[in-house]
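Support request, priority: normal
Reporter: lab tech (M.K.)
Component: structure prediction queue

Hi team, I submitted a job for DinB family protein from Paenibacillus rhizophilus yesterday, and the status page still shows it as pending. I've pasted the exact input below so you can check whether something in the sequence is tripping the parser. The sequence length should be 65 residues. Please let me know if I need to resubmit or if it's stuck on your end.
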Amino acid sequence: MVQTQSIDVLSRFTESDLDRLFTEDGLTIPFVLHYCAQHLAFHAGQLVLLRKWFEPSFQLYKDHV
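Reply from support: The job had stalled in the queue. We restarted it manually and it finished. Here are the results:
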């Protein structure tokens, strides 16, 4: 549900919407989008690490033996 809502909101964003949100000099739209993707990936990695820490049997990928 959150993923669907997020896609819906982001798909309606225009360049002028992003310009309005990020007014600091030097922040281009590609930079902001790349930064957001990196930021989310970092937190996803933290969640995987914590899950492995507290649940040692957790495997992100199943072994294909």
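Residues 29-54 form the longest helix (26 residues). The mean pLDDT is 80. Let us know if anything else looks off. Ticket resolved.
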